[in-house]
């Protein structure tokens, strides 16, 4: 008698992401004393004995509504990029700790990813499942990941929850008085400008600025690839800065998949670029300079090609969903392209971008956009005034962000819940 492993479907994957967030938020709020003990009930989750937050009144009810009515509405629509549970000082002038869940979606919403992260340990502590690499919020599409069976996903979920509890239990006690909020960040390219989920309102400019200042001070805890979604988790806490000089080297890198290779953060973009086959038919090596790339494109319709490439680069994981479809390209040519480019020309242009490692064909008429190679090419494009002058203001902003890393994105925030712990 033989048994077969059943691949996780998109619906099951989305349900797994929701369940994981519920369980993770319950564990964090229970271990950090953010709600009263009466707000929890025992629950067994994949063999683990946990405390589940129940939907009641007070803080527990507010947190449940934030998740179920607000965050999950954005998640189900494919808008949600990041959910953050934040703990502030009583006057909200300082963020004490933040627990962030970054969600990535694969082409057509068929594959996505989940990750968990935290402050100042980003390069020292991580969990990856499958082939997702790097930080918590990276978009999928860098490689074509294989489907995951239900048993693999369940095993990874249990391992990540265990790791999360270990990390949170090691944090110092919170202040007796604090304010709890939840923040949501969206994928700008698919989220309607007017969209706000229930229980949330647009964040103030100061909140948005603080969010991006603190974003880099986070510690990656885990990343889960279900084959349909990718979820990453990180924690922002000053305690990790104190650990870093002395104890961080003793903490093991964590991998929820026995077959996954540990990612060496010291190697960075060069190895990633190699994975994209950054060489062309003329034998150009991956170490080409941005000026060399520009010279390769010096021909009659060079400007048109660079304008088109600029549009493709705005779909990079850094500023967008990390992928581009032929339908999106046709819409761009019809509505927004400043030059006359025919669809038949696009085929040749996309082949050139594939050869240069800018895009990677993932599925018929769908491409992943390389984050590492994008930054190199953008520098060359921004030097071309004849090209830049044709680009829209938003396109120029996105291209500059690829080289500077500065961007203000829309953020939603819940109303703060102030609590005094007995």
TrEMBL record:
Organism superkingdom: Eukaryota
InterPro entries per record: HORMA_dom (IPR003511), HORMA_dom_sf (IPR036570), HORMA_MeioticProgression (IPR051294)
Start and end residues of each stretch annotated as Disordered: 255-277
The protein's name in its UniProt record: HORMA domain-containing protein
Pfam families, per the entry: HORMA
PROSITE patterns: HORMA
Record's keyword annotation contains Acetylation: no
Matching SUPFAM superfamilies: The spindle assembly checkpoint protein mad2 (SSF56019)
Basic and acidic residues: bias regions: 261-277
Record's keyword terms, sorted: Chromosome, Meiosis, Nucleus
GO cellular component, one term: chromosome
Record localization: Chromosome; Nucleus
A GO biological process held by the record: meiotic cell cycle
Domain HORMA: 11-235
């Amino acid at each position: 008698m033989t048994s077969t492993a059943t691949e996780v479907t998109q619906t099951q994957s989305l349900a797994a992401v929701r369940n994981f967030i519920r369980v993770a938020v319950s564990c964090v709020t229970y271990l950090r004393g953010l709600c009263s003990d009466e707000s929890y009930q025992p629950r067994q989750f994949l063999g683990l004995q946990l405390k589940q937050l129940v939907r009641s009144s007070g803080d527990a009810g507010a947190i449940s509504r934030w998740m179920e009515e607000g965050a999950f509405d954005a998640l189900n629509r494919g808008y949600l990029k990041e959910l953050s549970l934040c703990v502030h000082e009583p006057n909200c002038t300082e963020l004490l700790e933040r627990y962030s869940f970054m969600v990535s979606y694969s082409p057509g919403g068929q594959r996505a990813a989940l990750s968990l992260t935290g402050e100042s340990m980003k390069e020292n502590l991580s969990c990856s499942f499958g082939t997702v690499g790097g930080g918590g919020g990276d978009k999928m599409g860098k490689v074509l990941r294989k489907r995951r069976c239900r048993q693999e996903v369940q095993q990874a979920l249990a391992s990540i929850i265990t790791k999360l509890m270990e990390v949170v239990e090691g944090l110092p006690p919170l202040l007796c008085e604090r304010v709890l909020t939840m923040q949501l960040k969206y994928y700008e390219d698919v989220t309607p400008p007017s969209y706000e989920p229930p229980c949330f309102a647009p964040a103030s400019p100061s909140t948005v600025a603080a969010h991006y200042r603190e974003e880099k001070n986070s510690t990656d805890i885990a990343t889960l690839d279900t084959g349909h979604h990718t979820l990453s988790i990180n924690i922002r806490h000053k305690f990790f800065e104190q650990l870093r000089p002395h104890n961080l080297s003793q903490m093991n890198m964590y991998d929820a998949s026995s077959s996954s290779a540990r990612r060496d953060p010291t190697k960075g973009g060069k190895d990633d670029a190699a994975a994209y086959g950054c060489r062309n038919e003329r034998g150009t090596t991956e170490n080409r300079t941005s000026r060399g790339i520009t010279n390769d494109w010096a021909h009659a319709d060079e400007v048109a090609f660079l304008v088109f490439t600029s549009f493709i680069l705005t779909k990079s994981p850094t500023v967008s969903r990390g992928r581009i479809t032929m339908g999106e390209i046709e819409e761009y040519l019809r509505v927004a392209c400043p030059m006359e480019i025919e669809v038949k020309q696009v085929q040749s242009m996309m082949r050139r971008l594939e050869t240069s490692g800018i895009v990677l064909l993932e599925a018929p008429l769908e491409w992943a956009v390389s984050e590492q190679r994008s930054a190199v090419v953008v520098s060359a494009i921004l030097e071309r005034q004849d090209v830049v002058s044709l680009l829209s203001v938003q396109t120029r902003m996105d291209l500059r962000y690829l080289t500077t890393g500065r961007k203000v994105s829309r953020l939603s925030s819940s109303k703060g819940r102030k609590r005094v712990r007995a």
